[in-house]
Amino acid sequence: xxxxxxxxxxxxxxxxxxxxxxxxxxxxxxxxxxxxxxxxxxxxxxxxxxxxxxxxxxxxxxxxxxxxxxxxxxxxxxxxxxxxxxxxxxxxxxxxxxxxxxxxxxxxxxxxxxxxxxxxxxxxxxxxxxxxxxxxxxxxxxxxxxxxxxxxxxxxxxxxxxxxxxxxxxxxxxxxxxxxxxxxxxxxxxxxxxxxxxxxxxxxxxxxxxxxxxxxxxxxxxxxxxxxxxxxxxxxxxxxxxxxxxxxxxxxxxxxxxxxxxxxxxxxxxxxxxxxxxxxxxxxxxxxxxxxxxxxxxxxxxxxxxxxxxxxxxxxxxxxxxxxxxxxxxxxxxxxxxxxxxxxxxxxxxxxxxxxxxxxxxxxxxxxxxxxxxxxxxxxxxxxxxxxxxxxxxxxxxxxxxxxxxxxxxxxxxx
Amino acid sequence: xxxxxxxxxxxxxxxxxxxxxxxxxxxxxxxxxxxxxxxxxxxxxxxxxxxxxxxxxxxxxxxxxxxxxxxxxxxxxxxxxxxxxxxxxxxxxxxxxxxxxxxxxxxxxxxxxxxxxxxxxxxxxxxxxxxxxxxxxxxxxxxxxxxxxxxxxxxxxxxxxxxxxxxxxxxxxxxxxxxxxxxxxxxxxxxxxxxxxxxxxxxxxxxxxxxxxxxxxxxxxxxxxxxxxxxxxxxxxxxxxxxxxxxxxxxxxxxxxxxxxxxxxxxxxxxxxxxxxxxxxxxxxxxxxxxxxxxxxxxxxxxxxxxxxxxxxxxxxxxxxxxxxxxxxxxxxxxxxxxxxxxxxxxxxxxxxxxxxxxxxxxxxxxxxxxxxxxxxxxxxxxxxxxxxxxxxxxxxxxxxxxxxxxxxxxxxxx
Lengths: 415, 415
What we know:
Alpha-Beta Plaits; Molybdenum Cofactor Biosythetic Enzyme, Chain A
């Protein structure tokens, strides 16, 4: 297994002003493709220190990957430091120069001498094209076949270069035959411990694919990771295990990989030609906000009422005052009336309602902070769910939102 | 200025499964207190590699700070690696042992041999107490006065130890006389370039405090950083500059430090004994969600209507159908009617309304994606604002939300 080290360059990192997200992104891509990350480092914008860090890392590893410090300004000196570490001079790369000239002529900005400087690469280096900016990346070579790959620090420039150029080059260079293919199954309405219990035997017996259970706000993912020659072979290894897990978790898996709970719900409702309305108290608009984050939500989502005050529950949703007086706003009776009310008032086929005590104040011994009632209604029925949530105001609001969407999914689409 | 390096320990970091937030947290605390961070590193759970990284860092710096790898399990070996690097043996620390025993007896769990192992510290080390867990931190000493400070990797355990014990020790050890005091002024409704223009002379003339302008989603912060002996002296340095900047940015600063726009609005509305209602189209519930994220919002926020479909605008808000037909849903006329409608229907003193095209579909040449109309109404008047926003659906939704809250602030509270 080839070994690499990662060096992130930038004084702002050492001041803690910026959290380095490039290093974990690169580390993950290397791990997925079978490259061992031996260590990572952050260094300031100092030519000697960057060169020293590169030289030290090259003694331990087969290659070093840097990111940051490739821009046109005076404090960008990663390229010079790489030359120092490898004993190389720079030379003008015509291809890179033309690419930079094209960007400037296209955007109508004036090119300066320091932009021209960006076309100077270490002698003998291979270009890593940058589709999203002027800072070209490159791979420079040391005597003995070790290498230093340099990428810019802007995350979307680095990511495109990593996936499009560096990883393919590494796979060929080191004849990497295996790759980790990942499949994530999203569940709702089942606890992490219950998932563990249902698939414990698979955990123990499975070496490839590996299985991991990840808990999120009020729902869990099951992650399958297969090591295989390519993605097709990885998928073939995953398929039978996924089938087994799907049958063990029957009725709880709502989607996979990039799918979201709100996205799946909008898609299903559109397909079934059903319209949706929402009445929210304790979630304060979060259920509607999640649903409307999906492009095309307007095909099914009519709207919602945030009935924070009881007067709004009565006037805008038609909740009977005597229900509020008898059972209180946080009750199965009121959440039922809210769901029925918003469904009728907005003329929707289906409705979701939430009411609860988000805290930190407002709890009583009978109705403590974290008590939440949810309801889903259609013309035939109303289903309610009572929850006791723990945590801060924000956690209660977020979990109640996820649970409300989950209840809709469970009633209409789980099977 | 004393120099330190930071080493984060954990194989999961090198696999990119976890983003290291401890390193920037420690780096920031060191920078604030006048310690230079010379470099940072991530190393896997490997005793030899951890020891080698510590030894190399100690050659460059006055001290090394590690985090992670202090737990009771077999893959926790930072302590052993520190002993290797410094040539020290471990010895039982009775104070730490008693502290661990107390935690176990309090929680009723059974203490195991590997928990007892956590009470072994490098010979001569100073304890850094852990108020939030069983893993004690410590400072071990090398010949020549250099040191290695070890802290656990669980963020809230690390943070408490850092602020409560390590930083005070470093300040005394290196007689650190200065500290950076920070003041953040939050603005809304003024562009970054306009702020730059208004305070350009202060930027140039100011060495202490330093000034930085930071852009967020549709609003900017002005950050003042003063270097002084203590916080009181830092505040005294900041006060006159803050006054000057406040007068240059008169009418745009809504709060400072931990204050949020929604928090300031709720506080002011409660103080003025005014109630608030919201009608949202393109923001889909985000304005209500922000307002209800504030504890105590129910004292002023009555509720809202998410009128995504035009039928809801007509039925729930009383927007005249002829307005929708003549001007379209995204227009100054309709947003005015939405604000007036929700104010009257919900019986509120003040109302906010939003309508727009969040995209990616639904734009036309006359009304492109990103066109947003906002309104704020009270019994006497309605003020509207038209915006042309750029970016993804999410960016348009978030910026429209911030701008809507900003419009309310501008009309009632800016002076």
